[in-house]
């Protein structure tokens, strides 16, 4: 009997050891690769003080792995905050809008001077009036010179909804990544016609004709792998609180704005050098590829984890998920992987640190 018990214990310990050995720390598959880190919508981390340490962990992990993963760019899909301008805390979360902006700006400070990044603007990063005209505190907390490496690589930008120059619509140039030049471009949530025109002209400039352009915007693709359609709408917070709940207006159409399908038709499809479109906004994953007018493949990816880890209001913000995109030195292969520093930090949960299904781990081939 004792021999049987000892044998069973041996099997259990061996099984436990095998489970721990099965965890593999993120690393480049090729020593000459470089990578991009994709951060999904942070709003549900930011609005609850209890969730902010999860986002701190994510940013600390990125900072810690900049060298080992040869990270050359970090992109965020927008909805940096839950509230743009409401000063009463507890509307959705337990922090006021100014504190949310202050927090997310400080969290990105970890990367300032270490790696360039593009932080897209989302619908929650804007306030609107009865006519759908937008304002935002984005440029106050993400000024152009916040990260000197952004300034170093910034080559184009245009005016935002308040007619001032910001990074909400901008392009950063990274040259000679394994011999290939890249332009990382972001356009505002539901970009206005003037922004689409600006981005199309930038893409068509002679100086970028041989660049690969990666477009980062907030709303573009859904979880059915379809580009978004229909009118872009948002709401106003009303100045009344009923039973501790703020009243909201009916949804108001944003004038001269473009949905995902329109971004494709007006900007991405007619241009010859867009290689990728990265977005968030809709919780979940999505992917599709289509040929542009020149017959080149455009990879389009949705990644938004805001409803994971318990949901929009009661969860931990998104279980710490982020994406690692490894660009191999063949200048064609990009390996996409989905990883959580939150699960990876403890041997108890490391077995859950990778999403291995086909929607979360796949390979893209660039033309």
Secondary-structure topology with pairs:
Blueprint: H1 2-21, E1 34-39, H2 43-46, H3 52-64, E2 71-76, H4 97-108, E3 117-119, E4 127-128, E5 134-135, H5 138-141, H6 148-153, E6 154-159, E7 165-177, E8 180-186, H7 193-204, E9 212-216, E10 233-234, E11 237-242, E12 245-248, E13 252-253, H8 260-268, E14 274-279, E15 284-291, E16 297-304, E17 322-327, E18 333-339, H9 341-344, E19 354-355, E20 362-365
Helix pairs in contact: 7-8
Explain how this protein is built:
The chain is of the alpha/beta class. The protein has a single domain, classed as 4-Layer Sandwich (Purple Acid Phosphatase, chain A, domain 2), CATH 3.60.21. It has helices spanning about 1-20, 45, 50-65, 95-110, 140, 150-155, 195-205, 260-270, 340-345; strands at about 35-40, 70-75, 115-120, 125-130, 135, 155-160, 165-175, 180-185, 210-215, 235, 235-240, 245-250, 250-255, 275-280, 285-290, 295-305, 320-325, 335-340, 355, 360-365. Strands 1, 2, 3, 17, 18, 19 and 20 form a seven-stranded mixed β-sheet that branches. A seven-stranded mixed β-sheet has the order 6-7-8-9-14-16-15. A two-stranded antiparallel ribbon has the order 4-5. The longest helix has 20 residues, at about 1-20. Mean pLDDT is about 95; it is low at about 1-20.
